[in-house]
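Field: sequence (string)
Field: structure_tokens (string)

Example rows 1 and 2, in order.
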Amino acid sequence: MFSQMQRKILILSNFGTYDKDLFLHPLSYIDSQRLSANMSLAKGDSRTRALSVRDDEEGHLICRSGDVLQERYEIASTLGEGTFGRVMQCIDHRRGGAPVALKIIKNVEKYKEAARLEINVLEKINEKDPDNKYLCVQMYDWFDYHGHMCISFELLALSTFDFLKENNYLPYSIGQVRHMAYQICLAVKFLHDNKLTHTDLKPENILFVDSDFTMSYNVEKKREERTVKSTAVRVVDFGSATFDHEHHSTIVSTRHYRAPEVILELGWSHPCDVWSIGCILFEYYLGFTLFQTHDNREHLAMMERILGPVPSRMIRKTRKQKYFYRGRLDWDESSSAGKYVRENCKPLRRYLLSEAEEHHQLFDLIESMLEYEPSKRLLLADSLKHPFFENSGVGEATGTKSWEGNRDISR
């Protein structure tokens, strides 16, 4: 018999990149204009009709605007679609007509099983955080509708990546970075305290609660620029989350946010999430990805250019000796790839946009998160006490600074 994690690996290996992403975190695929329009739907009486339960030839549930599922969820519109199923915006009549996101899985066993695995994690998070204080996306409900697994989520707004993209990759301000960083650290600390590793943290998986913005005109760049009104966020995508006692697959995380111990196949745990957060904060601050590559050797070369040499202990221990020669990274700096890394990467502190103290404090935090050795990498409990967050009021603004729980959801 396969373990839960092994089943998860087998299931997700059958997904394409887009479909896996949309399956695991559908809320980040919401079209912003469609979302804005749908959020303004009237919450009063609306026409409904009897639903004839039918599937199309691909296994999707056939449903239209006005259909009602479980005498509760009234279909309003489609937010996203993939081979796994569809994500619909619905009116939840048991929540006072509130809009929700409903993921409707195809009546296909491999997709149904993947949904069950995600539901298991989401249920346990809900159990230990019933008031949604710790900023993980909230699952409201799940049910099997004539062979279709359905999951109801709070309806969130754009991802922090999509907002960045739609804003021409204009970086977030230092104050915005601070508030988002604190919330991410708090949410992921909650997971770690409860023996869970997220494994796929990235800007696409950090969603704004509300992505409304103000506009201003940048005379120098001759363009309109957006400033998000509220930086309240939620962490999403628990389809790859792994409990400490579960089987740990060899490779986790999206490439650009992947920790060195994962690349070198040295085993991983909670610290791989911390590395990902360091990469995310850099991206928020600069507007571009720190490690823009799709190749392991080049990825390691970029790390060395930005952070210094890979520790000798890690080189000795790794089974990936093909990347090294005589205890050093086997990398030709005179090659075209070598030239690319040299021209596009530089020591971390040289990316500072200001010499102001708060900017140096942010980079000190990022450096602590990008320690090569997982055992030396910053613990998220310590990150919340970092000078970057001190005396800023960010903890009180988040409303969760005093939480000291150590609650176990892994059993």
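Row 2 begins here:
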Amino acid sequence: DLPAEIQQALAALLQALQPMSPQDLLVQQARDAVRAVRAGRADRAQVLARLKEVAAQIRAQEPPDSPWHDAAGFLDAAIALLEGREPPPVPERYQAVWQSLKGGGA
């Protein structure tokens, strides 16, 4: 048997190698866009417009129980963050990504 630390490291590696869902990829892209705005590498107005457009498309095109709505919830929070407003609750699925953004992590 492998030591617990090695088993945990292997489990984390396997998880990292799993392909991301399209929703997870969208959330990662949104996170990166917010970071780019904060670092002065992207235009705030353009990023906000795109995030709002995508969130609206999700709500218009996806059924209410779709996992896309969790991604739209993350986008809503990212929009609020960029606008300096209090963000709505972030879906549990994306809490770790949100915490890295809220804390200003890279």
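free_text_note (row 2): The chain has a mean pLDDT of 91.
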